[in-house]
From TrEMBL:
It comes from Trifolium subterraneum (Subterranean clover). SUPFAM superfamilies: Cytochrome P450. InterPro entries: Cyt_P450, Cyt_P450_sf. The keyword Metal-binding applies. This is Uncharacterized protein. Belongs to the cytochrome P450 family. Keywords: Iron, Metal-binding. It comes from the Eukaryota. The lineage of its organism: Eukaryota, Viridiplantae, Streptophyta, Embryophyta, Tracheophyta. The keyword Metal-binding applies. GO terms for molecular function: heme binding; iron ion binding; monooxygenase activity; oxidoreductase activity, acting on paired donors, with incorporation or reduction of molecular oxygen.
Length: 130
Protein backbone atom coordinates (compact mmCIF):
# COMPACT_ATOMS: atom_id res chain seq x y z
CA UNK A 1 0.00 0.00 0.00
CA UNK A 2 1.32 3.47 -0.88
CA UNK A 3 1.44 5.73 2.13
CA UNK A 4 0.64 9.46 2.14
CA UNK A 5 4.27 10.50 1.66
CA UNK A 6 4.69 8.24 -1.35
CA UNK A 7 1.37 9.43 -2.79
CA UNK A 8 2.51 13.03 -2.52
CA UNK A 9 5.88 12.29 -4.09
CA UNK A 10 4.24 10.37 -6.93
CA UNK A 11 1.80 13.21 -7.49
CA UNK A 12 4.55 15.84 -7.63
CA UNK A 13 7.04 13.80 -9.66
CA UNK A 14 4.80 11.72 -11.91
CA UNK A 15 1.70 13.86 -12.13
CA UNK A 16 -0.75 11.41 -10.60
CA UNK A 17 -1.26 9.08 -7.67
CA UNK A 18 -0.69 5.37 -8.05
CA UNK A 19 -2.98 3.49 -5.67
CA UNK A 20 -4.70 0.32 -6.80
CA UNK A 21 -3.40 -2.28 -9.22
CA UNK A 22 -0.34 -0.73 -10.81
CA UNK A 23 0.26 1.37 -7.68
CA UNK A 24 0.46 -1.64 -5.37
CA UNK A 25 2.88 -3.41 -7.71
CA UNK A 26 4.90 -0.21 -8.06
CA UNK A 27 5.18 0.13 -4.27
CA UNK A 28 6.26 -3.50 -3.93
CA UNK A 29 8.94 -3.06 -6.59
CA UNK A 30 10.20 0.15 -4.96
CA UNK A 31 10.50 -1.70 -1.65
CA UNK A 32 12.37 -4.49 -3.42
CA UNK A 33 14.59 -1.87 -5.08
CA UNK A 34 15.57 -0.38 -1.73
CA UNK A 35 16.17 -3.82 -0.26
CA UNK A 36 18.44 -4.72 -3.16
CA UNK A 37 20.38 -1.48 -2.80
CA UNK A 38 21.22 -2.45 0.76
CA UNK A 39 22.15 -6.04 -0.07
CA UNK A 40 25.81 -6.95 -0.04
CA UNK A 41 27.02 -8.87 -3.04
CA UNK A 42 29.90 -11.04 -1.88
CA UNK A 43 31.30 -11.10 -5.42
CA UNK A 44 32.08 -7.39 -5.14
CA UNK A 45 34.53 -8.13 -2.34
CA UNK A 46 35.69 -11.63 -3.25
CA UNK A 47 35.49 -11.88 -7.04
CA UNK A 48 35.86 -15.65 -7.23
CA UNK A 49 32.66 -15.99 -5.14
CA UNK A 50 30.61 -13.93 -7.60
CA UNK A 51 28.75 -17.08 -8.64
CA UNK A 52 26.92 -16.97 -5.29
CA UNK A 53 24.90 -14.00 -6.55
CA UNK A 54 23.51 -16.23 -9.28
CA UNK A 55 22.85 -19.15 -6.98
CA UNK A 56 21.07 -17.21 -4.23
CA UNK A 57 18.92 -15.32 -6.76
CA UNK A 58 20.28 -11.85 -6.08
CA UNK A 59 21.06 -11.16 -9.74
CA UNK A 60 17.70 -12.38 -11.02
CA UNK A 61 15.84 -10.30 -8.41
CA UNK A 62 17.83 -7.23 -9.44
CA UNK A 63 17.16 -7.86 -13.13
CA UNK A 64 13.40 -8.28 -12.58
CA UNK A 65 13.24 -5.15 -10.45
CA UNK A 66 15.24 -3.10 -12.96
CA UNK A 67 13.12 -4.34 -15.86
CA UNK A 68 9.84 -3.47 -14.11
CA UNK A 69 11.03 -0.01 -13.06
CA UNK A 70 12.34 0.69 -16.56
CA UNK A 71 9.04 -0.33 -18.16
CA UNK A 72 7.01 1.61 -15.59
CA UNK A 73 9.03 4.79 -16.05
CA UNK A 74 8.91 4.37 -19.83
CA UNK A 75 5.10 4.25 -19.60
CA UNK A 76 5.06 7.37 -17.43
CA UNK A 77 7.27 9.26 -19.89
CA UNK A 78 5.19 8.11 -22.86
CA UNK A 79 1.97 9.24 -21.09
CA UNK A 80 3.50 12.66 -20.54
CA UNK A 81 4.71 12.92 -24.12
CA UNK A 82 1.28 11.97 -25.47
CA UNK A 83 -0.39 14.53 -23.17
CA UNK A 84 2.04 17.19 -24.37
CA UNK A 85 1.37 16.36 -28.01
CA UNK A 86 -2.36 16.68 -27.34
CA UNK A 87 -1.72 20.15 -25.93
CA UNK A 88 -2.99 19.29 -22.46
CA UNK A 89 0.16 20.20 -20.54
CA UNK A 90 2.87 22.78 -20.68
CA UNK A 91 5.51 23.63 -18.14
CA UNK A 92 4.21 27.20 -18.06
CA UNK A 93 0.92 25.86 -16.68
CA UNK A 94 1.88 25.47 -13.03
CA UNK A 95 -1.23 23.50 -12.15
CA UNK A 96 -0.50 20.74 -14.65
CA UNK A 97 3.31 20.70 -14.82
CA UNK A 98 5.19 18.12 -12.80
CA UNK A 99 8.78 16.90 -12.54
CA UNK A 100 8.50 14.70 -15.64
CA UNK A 101 7.11 17.62 -17.64
CA UNK A 102 10.03 19.80 -16.55
CA UNK A 103 12.56 17.13 -17.54
CA UNK A 104 10.88 16.63 -20.92
CA UNK A 105 10.88 20.38 -21.49
CA UNK A 106 14.59 20.56 -20.67
CA UNK A 107 15.20 17.70 -23.08
CA UNK A 108 13.17 19.32 -25.85
CA UNK A 109 14.67 22.81 -25.53
CA UNK A 110 18.21 21.62 -24.72
CA UNK A 111 18.13 24.23 -21.94
CA UNK A 112 21.15 22.85 -20.10
CA UNK A 113 23.50 23.07 -23.06
CA UNK A 114 23.87 19.36 -23.72
CA UNK A 115 21.39 16.67 -24.72
CA UNK A 116 19.66 14.76 -21.94
CA UNK A 117 18.93 11.14 -22.75
CA UNK A 118 15.79 9.27 -21.79
CA UNK A 119 17.84 6.98 -19.55
CA UNK A 120 18.99 10.04 -17.60
CA UNK A 121 15.40 11.22 -17.30
CA UNK A 122 14.39 7.83 -15.88
CA UNK A 123 17.28 7.92 -13.40
CA UNK A 124 16.30 11.39 -12.22
CA UNK A 125 12.67 10.36 -11.83
CA UNK A 126 13.68 7.25 -9.88
CA UNK A 127 15.87 9.36 -7.62
CA UNK A 128 13.00 11.79 -7.05
CA UNK A 129 10.41 9.15 -6.15
CA UNK A 130 12.62 7.00 -3.95
Amino acid sequence: MIYKKEESVCRVALGRRYREGKGNKFQEVLSEFWELLGTVCIGDYIPWLDWLGKVNGLYSRAEKCAKYLDEFLEEVIEEHISRRSDGDVSVDNEEQGDFVDVLLSVQKTNAIGFPIERTSIKALILKQIS
